[in-house]
Amino acid sequence: MNSPEYERVLSLMVYSFAVRLPELKEIKTPSGSLNDKQIKTVYDMVISKGAGNYENIITEDFEDIRRMVKLGRSVPAYDAEWYKSYIYSYVPELASVKNRNMFLLGSCDILFTLFYGALEEELERLLNKLSAQTQG
Questions:
Q1: Is the pLDDT score of 136 beyond 80?
Q2: How far is Cα 10 from Cα 115, in angstroms, rounded to an integer?
Q3: pTM above the 0.70 mark?
Q4: How many helices (DSSP H) and strands (DSSP E) are in the chain?
């Protein structure tokens, strides 16, 4: 886990979540929702901690998602396409057609989606908790 490849994937994973932060605006708490400035501040903090888009593997962009949310358009579901692109491009030993590799690549579709759904729920819970603390 202390390899450059692991650090790169971790950075990409965090970035893939960070670009979706504008979706937090849709979470309604007793004290309202986060504004654009607050969300951008969180995004900038996450990026400053090392999240990055190595070789532009992740096609989603913070500003594009911000515009989608602002216009009320639905944001595409979170998926593992960026991860698979990274594997195919930079980790040839995992890109070869073998049972173990196909299992890994196939399972990441559902696992990434489930993890992102759980992350959204946890963020909503935390925002509601913080909102209640500031009001109480």
A1: no
A2: 14
A3: yes
A4: 6, 0
